[in-house]
């Protein structure tokens, strides 16, 4: 077993995954994600994006292949160790906003921090800061059922960012949003990632969303078909769109 290159925070080699009913999902995916990078995983519906994120984050154990986080072999960890890794180092955003209905907005946002051992007081401060950044600070005392879908998704984003995860996995995070909300949420996600050095693995089938990433890995039928490298973030939008291919 050979450890991954030092500059990759996350690294996968020859990942295979077949669902319990026999449906094939990944057929030998290899990739590396650098510290602080925003990597888009693009591809049509059913291409394996969600499954890849679930394997990389340790949510499911890969059937064949390797996943490394820094120098830790995630593929050999047991369920408890993977759970701890997800709690302490990773964040996750689902396509549909899922919040605890009995807790108000700031309590939902503070929850991952408190699970990590942060005091309720400090977790509340961090939660309120992130809710403000996402323009939902005034909703802090409301319950999830009192919010619009787009507001709930912003709360989910605040909840994922508040603990400053090393890697944030975002599975179609703007799927339930209108165009204007989508742009705002994506801007917040990319700005937060760059200012806090958070690595983001972003599954999307939307080319506009993928264009915000530093690099895109395209999947088709569970296999990587190409990698698109974009110029550094300081370049113009036109420059970023003119990407190079390294198949
Ligand atoms: N729980 C499951 N049981 C069986 N097959 C599944 C399951 N989840 C996904 N699949 C199948 O695995 C393949 C990959 O699915 P996956 O959800 O990873 O793709 P995706 O690119 O994220 O798609 P989408 O954009 O629609 O979410 C598809 O063929 C899908 O039908």
TrEMBL record:
Keywords: ATP-binding, Nucleotide-binding
Domain ABC transporter: 10-246
Domain of life according to the entry: Bacteria
InterPro entries from the UniProt entry: AAA+_ATPase, ABC_transporter-like_ATP-bd, ABC_transpr_LolD-like, P-loop_NTPase
TM stretches of this protein: none
Molecular functions per Gene Ontology: ATP binding; ATP hydrolysis activity; transmembrane transporter activity
PROSITE patterns: ABC_TRANSPORTER_2
Gene Ontology CC, one term: plasma membrane
Protein family: Belongs to the ABC transporter superfamily.
Protein name in UniProt: ABC transporter ATP-binding protein
Source species of the chain: Streptomyces spiralis
């Amino acid at each position: 077993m050979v450890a991954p290159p030092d500059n990759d925070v996350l690294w996968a080699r020859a990942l295979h995954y077949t669902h319990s009913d026999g449906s094939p999902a990944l057929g030998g995916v290899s990739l590396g994600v650098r510290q602080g990078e925003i990597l888009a995983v693009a591809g049509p519906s059913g291409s394996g994006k969600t499954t890849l994120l679930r394997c990389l984050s340790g949510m499911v154990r890969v059937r064949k292949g390797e996943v490394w986080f820094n120098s830790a072999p995630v593929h050999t960890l047991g369920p408890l160790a993977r759970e701890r890794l997800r709690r302490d180092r990773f964040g996750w955003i689902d396509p549909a906003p899922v919040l605890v209905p009995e807790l108000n907005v700031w309590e939902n946002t503070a929850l991952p921090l408190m699970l990590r051992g942060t005091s309720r007081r400090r977790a509340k401060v961090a939660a309120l800061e992130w809710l403000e950044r996402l323009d939902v600070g005034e909703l802090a005392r409301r319950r999830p059922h009192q919010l619009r879908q787009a507001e709930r998704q912003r709360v989910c984003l605040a909840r994922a960012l508040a603990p400053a995860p090393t890697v944030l996995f975002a599975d179609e995070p703007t799927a339930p949003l209108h165009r204007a909300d989508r742009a705002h949420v994506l801007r917040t996600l990319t700005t937060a990632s760059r200012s806090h050095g958070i690595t983001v693995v972003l599954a999307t089938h939307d080319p506009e969303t993928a264009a915000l990433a530093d690099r895109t890995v395209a999947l088709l039928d569970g296999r990587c078909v190409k990698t698109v490298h974009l110029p550094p973030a300081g370049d113009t939008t036109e420059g970023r769109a003119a990407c190079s291919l390294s198949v």
